[in-house]
Amino acid sequence: METEPETTVIPGSQFRSGFVTVVGRPNVGKSTLVNRILGTKVTITSPRPNTTRRSVRGVLHRPGVQAVLVDTPGLHRPRTALGRRLNEHVDEALGDLDVVVAMIDATAELGPGDRLVLERASNSCVSQEEGEGELYQLLVVVNKVDRATSEQVLSQLASVYELMEGSAPQGAGRGVEYFPLSARSGEGVSELVEGILERLPEGPPYFPEEMISDVPEAFWVAELVREQLLARVRDELPHSIACRVTEWEWPRVRVEILVERESQKGIVIGHNGAILKEVGTAVREQLPEGAFVELHVQVEKHWQERPEAIERLGY
Ligand code: GDP
Ligand code: MG
Fold first, then answer.
1. pLDDT of 82 strictly over 50
2. N or C end of the chain: which has fewer CB within 10 A?
3. 213 DSSP 8-state letter
4. Coil, strand, or helix at residue 138?
């Protein structure tokens, strides 16, 4: 007769999991870092500020541990209703977390925007835990080291360290760790991942193993279209562009591209539709074979200023 296998609990073998919020000024490389850590693209990136318009969760699965990475829009001084909404997303993501990754750019002076980010990030750690080692959950990343000299990296590390020591709540830079890295090349990223994983508390797997992001398919296709447009347009136009899927009859997907003014329509379409054609091709290449993406451009006046339009667009 077979005996029931005995279950032995090995100390320290409990599943660990947690939410890891990535914050920073626009353009420091948050989305690039999240994609790099996950080894796959779950969030779009571009050289334009405010590319990310809502928090995107990407899931890192490792044996016995799960990290839910939350990519947030850049914290900034808002000038529009959309800008205010983006900052709200950041506040929400900072409200409920286990680890914060605060990012700064090695190649740019530390500015008031970075101070605000670091202050918010450390506050969100302190409110979580009382007593000793309260800033233990805060990891500070100095990104883009591939483009900086080692002097620049060192001086940036020194400035951010000084800032944390000086202004962190209760004067406590205690427990904060610093990671110089390049989200683009991957240099230094595995050290950060280790730092994140070792800080995760005991907890359940929040997502099934096959799930790597919480982005709905339709939203994702609209984001891919926006990413390709951002790579091709300039100046203020990136802020004016919004995309949404209006019909989904796989493999046919209809995406509406909204701009704010009649004069922007032509730029997005391009000479003889050249830009739209390029965008369609580049998006299709990132979708399963056979996908057919239909692009339509429409004017929706001043949607950036209208909360109901922002909500309808899912931002
Ligand atoms: P986000 O606004 O913080 O999400 O920034 P993105 O991830 O969209 O990146 C903004 C720009 O910085 C993009 O053009 C990226 O390719 C670039 N970038 C991000 N990380 C690095 C890096 O480590 N090195 C360099 N050279 N560029 C980077
Ligand atoms: Mg982003």
1. yes
2. N
3. B
4. strand
Global model pTM greater than 0.85: yes
Handedness of CA 90, 95, 100, 102 (dihedral sign): positive
Q: Give the containing element (helix H, strand E) for 122.
A: helix 112-126
Q: What is the DSSP letter of 303?
A: G
C-beta of 31 in contact with ligand 1 (< 6 A): yes
27 CA distance to ligand 1 middle (Å): 6
Does the pLDDT of residue 8 top 60, yes or no? no
Tokens of 285: 């290449």
Q: Which of 32, 143, 146 to mutate to test the pocket of ligand 1 (most atoms within 8 A of CB)?
A: 32
- Residue identifier of the C-alpha nearest atom 11 of ligand 1: 47
Asked if residues 135 and 124 have their Cβ atoms less than 8 Å apart, the reply is no
Write down the mean pLDDT value for the chain: 90
Beta carbon of 55 within 6 Å of any ligand 1 atom:
no
Backbone phi, psi, residue 168, to 5°: -60, 150
d(CA 28, CA 183): 10
Q: Where would I find the beta strands (DSSP E) of the chain?
A: 16-24, 56-62, 65-71, 99-105, 138-143, 177-180, 242-249, 252-259, 292-299
Q: What is the spatial distance between Cα 281 and Cα 290, in angstroms, rounded to a whole number?
A: 12
